[in-house]
Write a structure and sequence with these properties.
Layout: E1 2-3, E2 6-7, E3 20-21, E4 23-28, E5 35-40, E6 46-47, E7 54-57, E8 69-70, E9 76-80, E10 92-94, E11 101-102, E12 112-117, E13 120-125, E14 136-144, E15 150-160, E16 167-170, E17 183-184, E18 189-193, E19 199-204, E20 221-224, E21 227-230, E22 241-249, E23 255-267, E24 272-275, E25 278-279, E26 282-283, E27 285-286, E28 292-297, E29 312-315, E30 325-329, E31 335-340, E32 362-364, E33 367-372, E34 378-382, E35 391-393, E36 399-402, E37 430-434, H1 440-444, E38 452-456, E39 464-468, E40 474-479, E41 488-493, E42 522-523, E43 529-530
Parallel strand pairs: 8-15, 11-14, 17-23, 27-35
Antiparallel strand pairs: 1-2, 3-6, 4-5, 7-9, 9-13, 10-14, 12-13, 14-15, 16-18, 18-21, 19-22, 20-21, 22-23, 24-28, 25-26, 28-31, 29-33, 30-31, 32-35, 33-34, 36-37, 37-40, 38-41, 39-40, 41-42, 41-43
């Protein structure tokens, strides 16, 4: 790109790292068309920086966590010069040319679990690796940093040694060899060694991606034959990734460091076992007010006034407003029936769980609980383990028919862009029908013209009698005198309230329109209808 007397060069691809470049430029001046040649080399050349590169690995002898060999479920890691992009899917896998067995973290050949923490890539081979003792295992990866730099074909190798210290069995893995995420906050951890043990010398966090168990002390660890037993003396924090490895002494007096590593994630002992926000597998539609949500817990909850953690429902609607609730318990204090005191926001016309408009019917996207069990466990923001608790609501108030438009079906709402009649009988009552009963009792406490007005083309209010249909869903407006043929008229609806949901808002955060009242000061139609 040329700007005045300056030429800017921008490369399309990343330049190779640690390479010297010269620039050779030929061109012509603008005015005289004189040919020029500029060579930028020698002291005018430039060198690219190192880029993204590996700086440490527990497969390297220079690492403080060096392991000479690995077994199944041991973790290999490699640290880079910059923070990596956290998306594991960006890591590309290729054959490690000098390995007897290559580890793959993705694709049809996947045989290892992979995760990224800051600047480090972790690879843990599993039972899908086909190797025997003494084989070389390795992986070849291309990784991307958070800033966009790329390190290509970085290779890591180690010896497979099933007779080295490996975890023969542990309750931190499920039957498929996957890490458990449901251990309780005070569950005992068992690690069975593949080799005989004499004593535990020390312990440390498994790696930088895991947390050392809260308050762990040497006395919390014991050795029973070939099994290490960790009994937490302090409740661990739920939903954290914990990890431990050990320094152990063998019966022949050798001390082996950083072996028998395990990791796990904790969960509360108390749990939400069911909620009735679904019916027959589908989310049910809640009333804005007057409905209830029944929640069942796995054990009794402390509901006493002296509880150090009073039971509290954390519920906000999708608009960000807090929803206040009342709670009624069963005799065993395991089932709570919640009723919202604050109205839930209402859905768009036609929106319902499971259809294409479902998002504009979603009123609450999360319900959680702060509590203390009778047993004494404290839980914060407890919810279903499988999914968030969603609440979908009923449709807000909207007009579905009127006799001032042409050919409208009450299967749809009346929209402002519909074509008004140009032949409305001048002595006919205007009718607007809504999708639900109106709060006529409240409306009659005020002047009905506060809610509905007919205006002529001069903007003046037409005197009229306003009544309601027997089912309370329609407004009937009868002009006191006949309308003027050929004149245009506009109907305004101003905060017409629905019965039972007058204070409900629309789900405007998700594109909702209809609330507990009609829109303030809105004309029903953008264009006026014409009397005849």
């Amino acid at each position: 790109m040329i700007s005045g007397d300056t030429l800017f060069l921008r490369h399309d691809l990343n330049l190779p790292a640690e390479r010297t470049f010269s620039v050779d430029i030929y061109g012509y001046t603008k005015k005289t068309r004189e040919r020029i040649h500029v060579l930028l080399d020698s002291t005018a050349s430039f060198e690219t920086a190192k880029g993204l590169y590996a700086i440490a690995s527990n497969t390297w002898t220079t690492s403080g966590k060096y392991q000479a060999s690995f077994a199944l479920y041991d973790t290999l890691w490699i640290r880079f010069s910059e923070t990596l992009d956290s998306a594991v899917g960006l890591v590309q896998w290729a054959e490690a040319s000098d390995a007897d067995a290559t580890l793959y973290g993705a694709g049809v050949s996947k045989n290892a679990e992979v995760w990224i923490h800051k600047d480090t890539l972790f690879v843990r081979p599993d039972q899908r690796v086909a190797v025997v003792s003494g084989d070389t295992i390795g992986f070849n990866v291309t990784v991307v940093s958070a800033s966009g730099l790329v390190a290509s074909n970085v290779e890591v190798y180690s010896k497979f040694a099933p007779q080295s210290f490996s975890v023969e069995w542990t309750n931190t893995l499920d039957l498929q060899g996957e890490m458990r995420e449901d251990l309780k906050t005070q569950d005992t951890i068992y690690i069975v060694s593949s080799e005989p043990l004499d004593s535990i010398v020390g312990f440390s966090a498994l790696d930088t991606s895991t947390t050392l168990p809260t308050g762990i002390q040497r006395k919390d660890l014991s050795l029973r034959g070939d099994t290490i037993v960790f009994v937490p003396s302090v409740s661990l924090t739920p939903n954290l990734l914990y990890g431990l490895d050990f320094d152990v002494r063998t019966p022949d007096g050798r001390v082996v460091y950083n072996v028998l590593g395990v990791q796990w994630q904790t969960a509360y002992q108390v749990s939400v076992i069911s909620v009735d926000n679904r019916k027959n597998g589908t989310y049910r539609v809640f009333k804005s007010l007057g409905d209830s949500l029944v929640v069942s817990f796995s054990e009794a909850i402390d509901t006493s006034a002296s509880s150090t953690v009073p039971f509290h429902v954390n519920m906000s609607d999708v608009n960000g407003n807090e929803i206040q609730t009342t709670v009624k318990w069963n005799k065993t204090r395991t089932v709570a029936t919640l009723k919202n005191v604050t109205p839930l926001p209402t859905a768009n016309f036609g929106a319902a769980p499971g259809n294409s408009l479902a998002t504009s019917a979603l009123a609450v996207s999360s319900v959680t609980f702060d509590l203390k069990t009778v047993r004494g466990e404290i839980a914060q923001r407890l919810t279903l383990s499988s999914e968030a608790i969603f609440l979908y609501t009923e449709v807000g108030l909207c007009p579905v028919n009127t006799n001032i438009v042409k050919n409208h079906s009450n299967l749809y709402e009346v929209v402002s862009t519909e074509t008004p009649r140009d032949d409305f009988p001048k002595d006919t009552t205007l009718i607007v029908t809504f999708n639900r009963t109106l709060d006529t009792t409240y409306m009659k406490t005020r002047a009905l013209t506060d809610f509905v007005v007919l205006e002529n083309d001069s903007g003046k209010t037409v005197t009229a009698t306003i009544k309601f249909s027997l089912d309370g869903k329609s407004i009937l407006l009868k002009p006191s005198t006949a309308l003027v043929s050929g004149d245009e008229y506009w109907l305004r609806l101003m905060d017409v309230p629905a019965s039972g949901i007058r204070d409900a808002a629309a789900i405007d955060e998700l594109g909702g329109t209809y609330s507990g009242t009609s829109s303030t000061s809105y004309y029903l139609l953008k264009e006026g209808f014409t009397a005849q």
